[in-house]
Amino acid sequence: MIQVCRDDSPKVLESDKAMVRENILGFIVQVPPLLRAQLGESIKTIIHSDYPEQWPSLLHWVTHNLELQNQIFGALYVLRVLARKYEFKSEEERIPLYHIVEETFPRLLSIFSKLVQIVNAPIEVADLIKLICKIFWSSIYLEIPKQLFDPNIFNSWMVLFINLLERPVPVEGQPIDPEMRKSWGWWKVKKWTIHILNRLYTRFGDLKLQKPESKAFAQMFQKTYAGKILACHMQLLNAIRTGDYLPDRVINLVLQYLTNSVTKNSMYQMMQPQIDILLFEIIFPLMCFNDNDQKLWDEDPHEYVRKGYDIIEDLYSPRTAAMDFVSELVRKRGKNNLQKFIHFIVDIFRRYDEVPADLKPYRQKDGALLAIGTLCDKLKQTDPYKSELERMLVQHVFPEFSSRVGHLRAKAAWVAGQYAHINFSDPNNFRQAMHCIVSGMRDPDLPVRVDSVFALRSFVEACKDLDEIRPILPQLLDEFFKLMNEVENEDLVFTLETIVDKFGEEMAPYALGLCQNLAAAFWRCMASSEADDEADDSGALAAVGCLRAISTILESISSLPHLFIQIEPTLLPIMRRMLTSDGQDVYEEVLEIVSYMTFFSPTISLDMWSLWPLMMEALNDWAIDFFENILVPLDNYISRGTDHFLACKDPDYQQSLWNALQSIMMDEHMEDSDIEPAPKLIEVLFQNCKGNVDQWLEHYLRITIERLRRTEKPYLKCLLVQVIANALYYNPVLTLETLNKLGVAGDIFNHWFAMLQVVKKSGARVNFKREHDKKVCCLGLTSLIGLPADKIPAEALDRIFKATLELLVAYKDQVAENKKQNEEAEDDMDGFDADEEDDEEVDSDKDMGLDDEDGDEVSSLQLQKLAAEARGFQPADDDDDSDDDFSDDEELQSPIDEVDPFIFFVETVQGLQASDPARFQNLMQTLDFRYQALASGIAQHAEERKVEIEKEKLEKANAQ
């Protein structure tokens, strides 16, 4: 049955494939449900691979079997798989779906209608209706097929969906067990019906979202169906008031519909007469602590914590949907609803305070606190509430830190964290909150400890005086690590990052302990993630968080090199293991750690050198997407461990570098953007190993020139030309001889000078945009000026001299402009108070402000800064038409930093004048007035730079 090809990869014969396709469908109705699920996966794989090209008869099989009473289930089952193939496809790729709809939907509608009309239908009917709902869902998910735009046809479908929505779920046959009950067939039908109607409403029934050609449909949907659906949903939610059963997912979906309706005037008007009932008898009870919460709190606190911080759970949570509804209601309709909702909450606080402990409505107080935390952004911006927030915290939140009820202690911590950034008029209240939170980290209940940590992060961020935290820092960190041993959660680690970031170098005494604890937590998270591939990815996310936190610590102690020696043994096992294919999911984070360790350590140890082969092996095998990240530590190895790099032959680092760069640069299938780190590394080699890698110069020039011939992206062209400039600065005679030997010298210089001349309408240069680019070109061209006459003809010398003068002037102007911009930016920052709050009142119909807390962005910026410091490069400019030159050169470090291009140019010209006066005189005579003026200006600037450099050296010496 299996034909083995010469390459040993097994292939299934086409005749065997056909035989499988002809027979597999008949088994759908014959096998039990457990096997059917596995069979369905096989059919799905074949359909995704073979339909419609290799399996054109499949649709005919479906339409034929839809007509057979005993085969309808199998036909619907296959049709569901078929429709799902196109659920997320683009317009062009969905064309086969429209043919499927045209062939099957008339019959599907007929079957659907008959099934819905069956009185006291058995559960098997629910399974068939559910399949039809899923087929419809997949078919309309992105676009409505044109057949359904016919009002009569669409109405026929909608009548049936609304019928299902209105009709009560049969009581008879419902399972007693809650988990089985929510998965019962008729509840599944209800859920999928609501799912479909919500999708139609939000994607196709909103006039604001529609293309012009779809507006008529949107208007029709709004006018004919949206209100009916809303009325059904409101009726359905009454089950919450009467204590009847309603699955969480159904509640969530219904509330999503209501939330989307708040912004539409006609829909809100329908809702308004019942808004008080909705708010106080349905929404608020959903926000309160309930029996299921208590059961989970008592029996599985870890799961309680996980669910509370899992965004996937939010998709199914009635409580989250209730919070979203309240937020949207007060945001868009706050004028009528905010005041009465706050009065309702205040009344709960009052009644709670007035009754004795055994009668206190603890669960209602929990819901009220959740409401206050949910409305935080709105209340902080709205009079008269914003002036009362501190008093509210002191009076109604802080006391619950010592509540005898665990969930109220947790909620108090969470609410306090929400309001950490308000301006406390009494510093003692801020201090009280901090002490309450630290106490919460020692609470006997795990959820309280976790919520306290998150509150701590907010207070650390808000803290203007670190003396508030400094005395309790050791104790705080101790409690923190105890908690990390109990819970795998990336947000816990992010909280630690915040603390380290805030304290900076003050964390130095704790750096080793922090890294040891984080390393241990990382291994636990990895073990947890590997042990259960089917589990959620919280363990993997927490592992990433551990590595990011380690990077934050390393950055905070960057000025204390001796600490890196102490930390290295703790981190080496992580780096060694995760620089292999085992670490693909955390590779970027591990490379960041390697970058810090190789840059800030006093020296690069032999243990750290042992990581080089791992990175090169990965780069050659699977890690090309991480080339820009790998570049950073490789640069550090070459620039900070130059002697070892040059001397060691086992392993041969020079050879391994060549093998990798040659393979990448010569790969015709490699995109220009993937190549960019390669010429940057060649620059690192030439600049750091000047005079020591002559044997490699021709090799690298060959692959550079070869790649330059077929490069299209301007930025890569600049980088490749800069390799030649660096080679000229490295050894101008050898480089020129090599270019002549390869027969490309004339072409290369013509191409280079042409690139230098290209400017935009603004006058800005298109190529060599950064200060660094211009400086490298200046050094390379200047190196040619000092060569004897037999190496550089007079005509070529004249051309090089003029081009260098123009480039030096452009470099000088850019340096001055960037310096001016930096000074202005510093002045702006001096007058900017990041902690000031905007007291301006925000109208209730305006959007609420959102805090941007993108940790990945911060981490990425830190790595870019390190990369710049370590290698002298900024990230590639993806917008080749941008007018913005790179302007962060003052942060860059490279071996050419100590070389002033103006002084180098003037001294080179002076050397030419001394060694060959006649040639120098001829050169000067060829210059017109403009170039003579430029040369005079550069000479004067070189003298100024000498004075400035001496002054800088003196200031540096005095500062030490």
Automatic annotation (TrEMBL):
Keyword Protein transport assigned: yes
Main location: cytoplasm
Domain named Exportin-2 central: residues: 86-374
GO BP annotations listed: protein transport
Name assigned to this protein: Importin beta-like SAD2
Record field: compositional bias (Acidic residues): 824-857, 876-893
UniProt keyword Disulfide bond, yes or no: no
Keywords: Acetylation, Cytoplasm, Nucleus, Protein transport, Transport
Domain Importin-7/11-like TPR repeats, chain residue ranges per copy: 558-864
SUPFAM superfamilies the record matches: ARM repeat (SSF48371)
Family per similarity comment: Belongs to the importin beta family.
Compartments reported by the entry: Cytoplasm; Nucleus
Region (Disordered) location: 819-893
GO cellular component, one term: cytoplasm
Gene3D superfamilies hit by this protein: Leucine-rich Repeat Variant
